[in-house]
């Protein structure tokens, strides 16, 4: 059976966006077809649109890495889901549409009381934070954590998740208003990197050589500052380099403090790896989502046809939390 679909297409000549239509076949074994109610926007989408982040060969060429909605059809072998169930999912591309396919292992229930827009803000950020702070950096209760880009979708969830799991969380953001909001979400201190040098501010707060885990999406000139602030045996994890991939760095602190420097992208990891992340999230984080201890922050919702405006808004950096599309 084929299903008519509306989706956002990229014009290869000028990278403009338009609504297009096609048909989507029934889901393959192990897949779930979702009637999309909302889709999350991620910076990776902007890079893909610009031609700088091509999707894997087996992925949909359509942008969109996370959705929420209801189950429309089940592929063979799918268990635990029924047609009509509310669902949110990490897709393998294809989220900017009114229908999307997701592997069963990357599908999650919608936490109690959460709207479809709130649920669409979860999958990419949840998996990114879980993998990098808790799997790669192995954050332990009582450790000090510094999260850069705290006002992003990843940052707003990361501050809450690390705090809820016993971390002493610090963060950076680009305005006093955002910093105040992040402290309300659980950050011990939030530093406005536009009005102060966060390394100096952290040092004055007694944090120099005491930060155990750093999650950084900035890169560039932040790289040296991270090395200087990290505690002995500290772990620094990079998930993006918005401020630049290149920097002149003195790596002496890496040796003297026995630091671990690592990084990752979520999309490049296997379905099996993402399935493990989803299972661990359901065990450790979902109870906190269900009882409202952790809540996604949604900044603004755009209609699907206004996706170009949504991209411009993300590029401006004015948002606090996630930007959502509604088909």
TrEMBL record:
UniProt KW Secreted keyword: no
Domain (Enoyl reductase (ER)) ranges: 14-325
Matching PANTHER family: OS02G0805600 PROTEIN (PTHR48106:SF8), QUINONE OXIDOREDUCTASE PIG3-RELATED (PTHR48106)
Keyword list, A-Z: NADP, Oxidoreductase
One Pfam match: ADH_N
GO molecular function, one term: oxidoreductase activity, acting on NAD(P)H
Record-given protein name: NAD(P)H-quinone oxidoreductase
TM spans (from-to): none
Source organism, top-level taxon: Bacteria
Keyword Oxidoreductase assigned: yes
Organism the protein comes from: Seongchinamella unica
InterPro entries: ADH-like_C, ADH-like_N, ER, GroES-like_sf, NAD(P)-bd_dom_sf, Quinone_OxRdtase_PIG3
């Amino acid at each position: 059976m084929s299903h008519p679909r509306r989706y956002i297409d990229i014009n290869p000549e000028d990278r403009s966006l338009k609504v297009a239509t096609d048909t989507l076949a029934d889901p393959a074994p192990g897949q779930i077809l979702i009637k999309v109610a909302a889709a999350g926007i991620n910076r990776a989408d902007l890079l893909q649109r610009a031609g700088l982040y091509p999707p894997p060969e087996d992925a949909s060429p359509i942008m969109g890495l996370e959705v929420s909605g209801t189950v429309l059809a089940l592929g063979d072998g799918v268990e635990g889901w029924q047609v009509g169930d509310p669902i949110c999912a990490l897709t393998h591309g294809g989220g900017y549409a009114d229908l999307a396919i997701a592997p069963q292992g990357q599908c999650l229930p919608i936490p109690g009381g959460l709207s479809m827009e709130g649920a669409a803000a979860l999958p990419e950020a949840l998996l990114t934070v879980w993998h990098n702070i808790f799997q790669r950096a192995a954050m332990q209760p009582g450790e000090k954590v510094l999260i850069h880009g705290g006002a992003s979708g990843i940052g707003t969830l990361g501050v809450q998740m690390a705090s809820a799991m016993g971390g002493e969380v610090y963060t950076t953001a680009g305005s006093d208003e955002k910093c105040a909001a992040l402290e309300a979400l659980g950050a011990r201190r939030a530093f406005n990197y536009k009005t102060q040098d966060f390394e100096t501010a952290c040092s004055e707060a007694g944090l120099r050589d005491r930060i155990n885990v750093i999650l950084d999406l900035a890169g560039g000139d932040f790289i040296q500052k991270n090395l200087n602030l990290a505690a002995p045996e500290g772990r620094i994890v990079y998930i993006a380099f918005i401020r630049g991939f290149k920097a002149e760095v003195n790596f002496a602190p890496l040796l003297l403090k026995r630091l671990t420097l690592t990084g990752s992208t979520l999309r490049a990891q296997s379905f099996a790896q993402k399935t493990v992340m989803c299972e661990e999230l359901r065990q450790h984080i979902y109870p906190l989502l269900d009882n409202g201890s952790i809540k996604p922050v949604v900044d603004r919702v755009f209609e699907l046809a206004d996706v170009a405006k949504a991209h411009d808004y993300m590029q401006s950096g004015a948002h606090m939390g996630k930007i959502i599309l509604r088909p």
